[in-house]
TrEMBL record:
Keywords: Hydrolase, Signal. The lineage of its organism: Eukaryota, Sar, Stramenopiles, Ochrophyta, Bacillariophyta. Residues 1-24 form the signal peptide. SUPFAM superfamilies: alpha/beta-Hydrolases. Residues 53-336 form the AB hydrolase-1 domain. It comes from Seminavis robusta. GO terms for molecular function: pheophytinase activity. This is Hydrolase, alpha beta fold family protein. It comes from the Eukaryota.
């Protein structure tokens, strides 16, 4: 009889907790000044918590709105409170110079929309916004929060690796979600610093107008996602909205001509500059690599190359690989339940990440509104490499 009473009480308590979490979830849109430029960022979760916060770094062409599904999952499906941040890169989303005028505005002068700029912006964001927010609000008797968990999708993963390499003092762990191994075309004839010369300006304007066309955005999403039901017209509208200011054409041209990211710890020694894979091999923190298996661009073969770089680290360094079937280039948006659970296990494990059980069984299935997501952990040698994979990984990055 006691069991029969306790069971419905337990279910009622669980339901009450879930409803409370759902009601409590909200995203605060904020502004921050970076070198005179207004930067848009989103914050969710509890700044009262002394737990290490999570910083989400976006892919290209979107704002932190692309992280909202993951933010909600992280905030409503865990008992441990943690603050979560998403930041729009300068020249993306809600982050633009004050007087954009096709590259000729006063605040646009000499601005280079490079990966190096975004890495520096993310570092300053952590130092000036994230950590002060945590340490101003938390109980003064507790130990100050000094680091963050970085989670980067696509180019966000690329930037996260450089940030963690340059500033290991700021990073507790890195999670790479279909990270791109390359960024920055370094096209000839211009450094990418605004204003653009005539030819790059014309080319950039033409390419940008083609890319931000509604039809092109939909085709890009169709290729990026495994399931067409995982994105909607609202996402198309949000992406298009990011491009409608007076600075988009100039920013796109600058991005096309800007050089690749390089981690330079000693400005006087150019030989100290590290590329992406060198930075991976130098990371001092734990690394979780998560790839959507059905990404047409950043395929698991690139994850294998990343893991091979991580394998060269000291034996005490931890890195793990998890693959998501029926997921494309944006696991944070297409598989928020699976990614949320992996992240929660990962960030809460602290010193136990090597033996942590990330997947419940050989495989685990999560059901999203648009279909089932299958999760599986693999070792480096278990990731298959076809002929085209070998060619692609040899020539890219």
């Amino acid at each position: 009889m006691m069991f029969l009473i306790r069971q419905p009480l337990f279910l009622l308590l669980l339901l009450t907790q879930q409803l409370a979490a759902a009601v409590a979830f909200s995203i605060q849109q904020e502004r921050w000044d970076y070198k005179g430029h207004p930067i848009g960022y989103d914050q969710a979760g509890s700044v009262e918590s002394s737990s290490t916060p999570i910083v989400l770094l976006n892919g290209f062409g979107v704002g932190s709105f692309h992280q909202h599904r993951l933010m909600e999952q992280l905030c409503t499906t865990t008992t441990s409170q943690r603050s979560i941040y998403g930041m729009d890169y300068l020249g993306q989303g809600r982050s633009w110079p004050r007087d954009c005028n096709d590259g000729f505005g006063t605040s646009e002068q000499d601005l280079q929309y490079s990966g190096d700029l975004w890495v520096d912006q993310a570092i300053q964001f952590i130092e000036q916004v994230v950590l002060p927010n945590q340490n101003n609000k938390q109980n003064k008797k507790k130990k100050p929060v000094q680091k963050v968990h970085l989670v980067g999708n696509s180019v966000g993963g690329h930037l996260a690796v450089f940030l963690a390499c340059l500033r290991p003092d700021l990073v507790e762990s890195v999670t790479l979600l279909n990270a791109t191994p390359v960024w920055g075309l370094n096209l000839p004839g211009w450094s990418g610093s605004l204003p653009a010369p005539t030819v790059p300006r014309i080319i950039g304007r033409y390419m940008f107008d083609r890319m931000r066309d509604f039809g092109t955005i939909r085709r890009f999403l169709e290729n990026s996602y495994f399931s067409e039901q995982a994105y909607d017209d609202e996402l198309v509208r949000q992406i298009r909205e990011c491009t409608e200011g007076n600075g988009g054409h100039a920013a796109f041209a600058s991005i096309m001509w800007s050089p690749p990211v390089r981690a330079v710890k000693d400005e006087a020694d150019s030989s100290s500059a590290k590329g992406f894979y060198d930075c991976l091999a130098a990371l001092e923190c734990d690394v979780l690599v998560v790839f959507g298996k059905d990404d047409p661009w950043c395929k698991p073969a690139f994850a294998k190359k990343m893991l091979q770089a991580l394998d060269t680290r000291q034996p005490d360094k931890v890195h793990r690989y998890v693959e998501l079937s029926n997921v494309g280039h944006c696991p944070n948006h297409e598989a928020p339940q699976a990614v949320s659970q992996l992240l929660q296990l990962w960030v809460n494990a602290a010193d136990n990440r090597r033996s942590l059980q990330l997947v419940n069984g050989p495989t685990e299935t999560f059901t999203e509104q648009w279909g089932d997501i299958t999760v599986q952990e693999l070792g480096t040698d278990s990731i298959p490499m076809g002929l085209m994979d070998r060619v692609a990984t040899a020539f890219v990055g």
